[in-house]
Amino acid sequence: QLQLQESGSGLVKPSQTLSLICAVSGGFISSGGRSWSWIRQPPGKGLEWIGYIYKSGNAYYNPSLRSRVTISVDTSKNEFSLRLTSVTAADTAVYYCATESVVGRPYWGQGTLVTVSS
Amino acid sequence: EIVLTQSPGTLSLSPGERATLSCRASHSISSSYLGWYQQKPGQAPRLLIYGASSRATGIPDRFSGSGSVTDFTLTISRLEPEDFAVYYCQQYGSSPLTFGQGTKLEIK
C-alpha cells in the first residue's frame, strides 16, 4: 500500500518561505489516477486543504492561499513538494501530505510540525 | 466551494452506546468522494471510511458509513473506550477539497 512521508524545515522565520517534500513509496506517482495533496492543521484547530497536483503537473490551490502557494511534482524521485511564501505565525501548523483517488482509498502521511517564529 | 457542516459539534455518550454523526454538504457530492477520519490528540487523522461507505483496512466493523448526495452519516454501533476522539468528514471530488469542522465524541 502507499506510504507518504513529509520532510522539511520545522522552523521558518516570518516573511520567509516554507518548503516541504513528500516522499511516496509503495507505488508511483507516475501511475496516474490520483491527486497528491497538501493539508494543514493549526494547533487546536481543524483541517485545511492547501492544494493538490496531478502527475501531469497540473495543480489546484485553495483560493485563500493561492497567491502564496506552489505545489510541484518530481516523478523521477517519486515525490511532490510544497512551497509557501511570506509566512506568518498564522502558518504555524502540522502539514500533511495525502493522496486521493476515485477508485481507491486516500492515504496520508504522519505529518510534520512547522513553526513560524523569529 | 462545497461547505461541509458536521453535527453535533460535541456528542457525549457512554461506552456501549450507539453514536450517529452527521455530515451535510452545501452541494451534492458523488458518494465516491466522501471520507470520514478519526483524530486523537497528537496523532494524524486516521481514515475510517472512504467512498461514503467503504471501511478502510483494519477498521472494526462497528464503524459504518452511509448516505448520498448531500447527507452522510458515520455510525459507531457500540462505542469502545478508544473511540472517543474527534471525527472529520472530507469531500475530495471537487476543488477546493473541504473538511467539516469536526465532531468531538466525548465520554459521558
Supply database-style keywords:
heterodimer, A: 118 residues, mainly beta, seven-stranded mixed sheet, four-stranded antiparallel sheet, 52% strand, globular, B: 108 residues, three-stranded antiparallel sheet, 10 strands, 55% strand
| Strands of chain B, total number | 10
Beta-strand residue fraction of chain B:
over 45%
What is the global morphology of chain B?
Answer: globular
The radius of gyration computed from the alpha-carbon positions of chain A, rounded to a whole number of angstroms, is 14 Å
Rg of chain B, Å, rounded: 13 Å
Number of continuous helical runs of chain A: 0
Unreliable residue stretches of chain B: none
Largest interface comes to:
A-B, 23 and 23 residues
Beta content of chain A comes to over 45%
**Cα distance spanning the termini of chain B:** 35 Å
**Tally of strands of chain A:** 11
Assembly form of the protein: heterodimer
Helix content of chain B: under 10%
What would a concise description of this structure say?
The complex is a heterodimer of chains A (118) and B (108). By secondary structure, chain A is mostly beta strands.
Topology:
The complex is a heterodimer of chains A (118) and B (108).
Chain A: E1 3-8, E2 11-12, E3 18-25, E4 34-41, E5 48-53, E6 59-61, E7 69-74, E8 79-84, E9 93-101, E10 107-108, E11 112-116
Parallel strand pairs in A: 2-11
Antiparallel strand pairs in A: 1-3, 3-8, 4-5, 4-9, 5-6, 7-8, 9-10, 9-11
Chain B: E1 4-7, E2 10-13, E3 19-29, E4 34-39, E5 46-50, E6 54-55, E7 63-76, E8 86-91, E9 98-99, E10 103-107
